Amino acid sequence: MYNQLTQEIMEQIKAVSEAVFSGEDINPDYEKDEMPIYGTHMPDLAVQPRSTQEVAAIMKICYDNNIPVTPRGAGTGLAGGAVPLYGGVLLDLTKMNKIKSYDMENFVVEIEAGVLLNDLAEDCQTRGMLYPPDPGEKFACVGGNVATNAGGMRAVKYGATRDYVRAMTVVLPTGEITKLGATVSKTSSGYSLLNLMIGSEGTLGIITELTLKIIPAPKAAASLIIPFEDLHTALATVPQFKMAHMEPQAIEFMEREIVLASERYIGKSVFPQELEGIQIGAYLLVTLDGNSEDEVDALVEQAAELAVEAGAIDVLVADTPSK
Ligand SMILES: Cc1cc2nc3c(=O)[nH]c(=O)nc-3n(C[C@H](O)[C@H](O)[C@H](O)COP(=O)(O)OP(=O)(O)OC[C@H]3O[C@@H](n4cnc5c(N)ncnc54)[C@H](O)[C@@H]3O)c2cc1C
Fold this sequence. Notes:
28% helix; five-stranded antiparallel beta sheet; four-stranded mixed beta sheet; 323 residues
């Protein structure tokens, strides 16, 4: 098993890092993520590194002394992966939060792993670009998204996080720094170690920097709420959008019970419960995007016709601003 962290090892870590926390100075949030049911445990030491070199120096010290290390982004995970179950060192990567550069010839952005998804999305938007992965939690770190291969509603059209990672810098458990992948879209030499790291939940190394694919942002979008009498009819409609070459940007289904529970929680009613005397059993949420308002309007019309033919009770256009 692992060794205990000694005063001497702590001093070695303090010599390479300025933000080192022990005892009562450790942020109590570090003992859990968003799902404490999977276990809670405090680290013996927490460090907020500022660079790949700093991460490498800490990893080498821990490797040489057989001390466990747990990387952590924003701690929004739902599987307990960022919880330091064996104690040791917790590496909080949120201070490595620089958006470093855009390469508009290859359509990529280079960032540090601790950048928040929300910050990256907003920054891309100011340049007319879109970083498509869009998991429900916007205040996770992109490094955490990569370590969990986060998906989200837009995966149906654009894919999940894995599809947007071109290259990364990783610190291996030994403290060696390695670069995986390439900026260009076509690269096929060697093993696909990049894909091994994506979704590895902090078990294979620490992701410190990322090169991510971005795309020109669609100019218009519209969201639909489509109520159905039952879940089966709602789900059977989904492949029909694809067959009609509609490629919705996002599709999600919600059952009646989930909607009622959510509305109870937020204390207001958002979705209709009954239409034309029929109790609604399930909803599809569909977002369509395109390069002009006219194009999106035509898609909305086509989607509405298709949904009603497939058994939808009605089609409601959600009151959201276009992106
Ligand atoms: C409200 C909510 C909605 C969500 N919706 C979706 C959704 O629609 N689709 C979906 O797929 N997911 C969804 N998620 C899960 C979400 O994708 C993860 O919570 C998020 O990606 C984790 O990022 P984080 O920075 O918080 O990572 P953390 O929770 O801190 O860590 C998650 C895992 O990644 C590891 N890790 C973190 N950073 C690094 C790094 N730099 N290098 C190596 N390993 C690292 C950790 O050790 C841990 O194993 C949702 C979560 C919430 C709370």
